[in-house]
Amino acid sequence: MATAGGAGGERAELQVLGTWSSPWVIRVRVALALKGLRYEYAEEDLANKSDLLLRSNPVHKKVPVLIHGGRPVCESLVILQYIDEAWAGVETTPLLPSDDPHDRAAARFWATYVNDTFFPSWRALFKSTTDEQRATAFESVVPVVEPLERAFRECSKGKKPFFGAGRRRGSSTSCSAAILVWIKVVDEVTGVTLLDEARFPGLAAWAERFMAVDAVREVMPDSDKVMEQYKGFLTKWIASADRS
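^ that's the sequence the OP posted. Answer follows.
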């Protein structure tokens, strides 16, 4: 799947404005990869935002932005829903379960849970700079992961794939998978294992399987580059704390 560069300099019908390491951008690129959709990717410098980004998202001025036929769609969860609806009538993998309204509602619920509950809690671990902060943050985020593990078991029921456990890899998967590379990097730096196989066997196995999918690996950022960026963040945060 070609993901960058319009042929002959022509603007592609489908574009993504983003930054390479953003989990919100990654989730959109994962969704497009799972749908098998071709698009042009444009890397944004958020310190010097392009006119196209400012025109496309004048309210928040943030990435990601999906531009389809010249019309922008903003906010990652909205973009995922748009992608599923816009290409509902073609031969692509649905991001939401197409045969059961209750399953679709459950997928939306857990996508929102990852976005609004898990990520803010995990972010405290991400931003921690001392062993004490890390221990406290880890203790806080583990209970937030527990409902995801239970949901995995209950919704799969030993046969129905969930969070991409089988062929169906949907919006909950895209939302969750977007942060996997960051979880791995933060785990390495902080010396913890968030998706521990003993504590969260379902999620740990899912993460390993999902990251092995070719379409996903193609759009995931290099973990070494993410590590370099993260260590740069930590250096700045520590320096800022020392000055305060």
